[in-house]
Design goal:
single chain, five-stranded parallel sheet
Length: about 200
Amino acid sequence: MTSVWDDVVGQPDAVAVLRRAVTDPTSMTHAWLITGPPGSGRSVAARAFAAALVAGDGGRWTSETADNARARVVRGTHPDVHVVATDKTVITVSEVRDLVTIAQRTPGEAPWRVIVVEDADRIVERSANALLKAIEEPPPRTVWILCAPSEQDVITTIRSRCRHVTLRVPPADAVADLLVRRHGIDRDDALVAARAA
């Protein structure tokens, strides 16, 4: 049986924290900061967390409905999950204001509206000021998931209001296992590729 967490390789401690937040309301918070070096799987972990949140049925949905919700998050088509990934140098004030507007909407079908910002380190101070109030006082069913290489890459006022989860570079064996499972690559070749990466 597959899980949304299967592709978050080599991160058992981080996965445990995020899983607990999905199932235990006392562990949940409205803003998260997922950090780790390139290749650690920040975006993968953020999307897995978003998928687990929107599929968290609390006994209301059938398993098939929850599976469908998770699959739509992974494909990027779930209406209650908004992902921002950019190649630009900065995330502008107008882009942040658009996110704040989206965050104010009530989730349409899931228990949560989730905003994932994969490059939160590209939010400069002026843009951060536009985001600060939304993170300080979010609507009750909104979750922000910010990703960055390190805590220090995120403006202090933003990071101080987030629960922090740190990822590490996954072991080569874990990456090789993923390559074998996902792409059917020979185990020895997968291990060589994982070590080289």
